[in-house]
Specification:
The protein has helices at 43-59, 66-69, 142-150, 155-158, and strands at residues 17-19, 22-28, 73-84, 93-103, 107-116, 119-132. With 163 residues, it is of the alpha+beta class. A hairpin with a 2-residue loop joins β5 and β6 (119-132).
Amino acid sequence: MHQHQQAQLPYDLNRGRWEDKVFIWPLRVYYEDSDMSGHVFHANYLKYAERGRSEMIRAMHIPPLYLREKEKIYFVIRKIEVDFIASCFVDDFLEVKTDVLKFAPTNVLFSQEIMKQNKLIASLKVHMACMNLEGKITKLPEIIKEIYNQLPDLSFAKNRVLI
C-alpha cells in the first residue's frame, strides 16, 4: 500500500516559475488521474507534459490564441520518447520541468522531466513540428526564439503586444 506523505507546497499550484531557461509547472495528482491500483495511469504523464509545454509558452507572455490567430501556425507532435522511472499516486505533488533542447527552422525539441519531491519520475523528449493553418509544415515564428533567448529576463516579452 502506498504511504502518502503530504508534501509542503513550495509555491502556488496555479503558477509556475523559471530557473534560468527551464520552466517548472507544479501540479497535484487527482483521483481521475489514477487507475484502479491508485497509480497514475501512464497516458496522464503525457497530459502533464502537455500542460508544462503550454504553460511555458504562456509564461513567455505568448497567449494561447496568439500563435493561431496572429502567426497563423500551430504545433503537432511528431515524436515522443518517454522513460517511465517511478510511480505517482493520488494527491502527490509533482513538478513538470520543461526546457528547449533545440530550435530548428520548422520544429522544436523539448526535454521534460516529471519530478516528485526532487526525484525523477518520468523523462520525455518531445519533437514538435510547426504547421500553418493549411496543415503544411512551416517556419517557426521568430518571436518564440527571440523571447526564449532572452530568458530568464521577460521584460522583452512584456513590452511586446502579442494579441
